[in-house]
């Protein structure tokens, strides 16, 4: 697992240079707009909802003593929950809607790595790529929420909260890397086969997703660069894994 996580991280080493070398920036224009607009909408919604959730949680405290302190804590908890859920929604929305634009990027990277300009794999249309992206990300969104909700509940327990925060980050990283890898996998495998492939190399998905999540901590620039670099890094490693499996 550790070895695969390191492989996922290593994919970023030459990502920026490869994008420039293959002149791929033009393919990221619309996905960057999608990413930025989605981030703004979710950020505004999170700002408004955090207080509402905090006030809702604060109603549990019936006593007058400590009411103000508990309300403050509740607001913080509300903000934490909204941010966590917001990040989940953000990444699945942008990865699903960007699928038709990211698949050509992945294909050009594969052609560069294999020196095969016309691949003989599955040929999919724009609508099929969009449909596949939506299907994969709806599936991942559902599973991620089922894992995230109990982790969030555990995070309220003293000391356990530190471990649960780490688990939450790794969970988000895994599904981010999953989505990035599927832009390459969709040409090679059907839906169920792709899921099985990522499960075998879940460490690579986590490694890719770790950097994806860290990029989101960088204001504005992170939202702009997260897709170009993470998709390129995932494509590099996924192509290598597929070749290794064949050989």
Estimated radius of gyration = 20 Å
Determine the structural class based on helices, strands and strand pairing.
mainly alpha
What is the N-to-C order of secondary-structure elements (H for helix, E for strand)?
A: HHHHHHHHHH
Low-confidence stretches: none
Reported for the largest beta sheet, the result is: none
Overall average pLDDT:
83
Tell me the β content. under 5%
Q: Tell me, what's the shape?
A: globular
* Relative helix content: over 70%
Describe this protein's structure:
The chain is mainly α and 247 residues long. It has helices spanning 2-10, 15-21, 29-58, 67-97, 99-114, 126-154, 160-188, 191-200, 202-215, 221-246. Helix 5 packs across helix 7 (160-188) and helix 6 packs antiparallel against helix 7. The longest helix has 31 residues, at 67-97. The two termini are 21 Å apart. The mean pLDDT is 83.
């Amino acid at each position: 697992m550790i070895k695969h996580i390191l492989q996922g991280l290593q994919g970023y080493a030459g990502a920026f240079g490869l994008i420039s070398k293959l002149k791929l920036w033009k393919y990221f224009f619309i996905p960057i707009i999608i990413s930025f607009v989605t981030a703004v909408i979710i950020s505004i919604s999170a700002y408004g909802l955090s207080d509402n959730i905090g006030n809702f949680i604060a109603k549990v405290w019936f006593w007058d003593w400590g009411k103000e302190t508990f309300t403050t804590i509740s607001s913080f908890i509300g903000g934490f929950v909204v941010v966590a859920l917001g990040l989940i929604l953000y990444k699945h929305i942008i990865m699903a809607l960007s699928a038709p634009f990211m698949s050509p990027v992945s294909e050009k990277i594969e052609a560069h790595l294999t020196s095969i300009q016309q691949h003989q794999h599955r040929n999919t249309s724009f609508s099929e790529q969009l449909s596949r992206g939506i299907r994969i990300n709806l599936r991942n969104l559902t599973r991620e929420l089922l894992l995230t909700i109990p982790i969030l509940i555990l995070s309220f327990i003293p000391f356990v909260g530190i471990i649960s925060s780490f688990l939450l980050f790794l969970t988000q990283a895994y599904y981010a890397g999953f989505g990035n890898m599927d832009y390459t996998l969709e040409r090679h495998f059907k839906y169920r086969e792709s899921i099985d492939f990522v499960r075998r190399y879940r460490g690579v998905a986590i490694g890719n997703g770790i950097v994806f999540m860290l990029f989101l901590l960088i204001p504005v620039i992170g939202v702009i660069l997260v897709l170009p670099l993470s998709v390129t890094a995932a494509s590099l490693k996924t192509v290598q894994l597929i070749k290794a499996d064949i050989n």
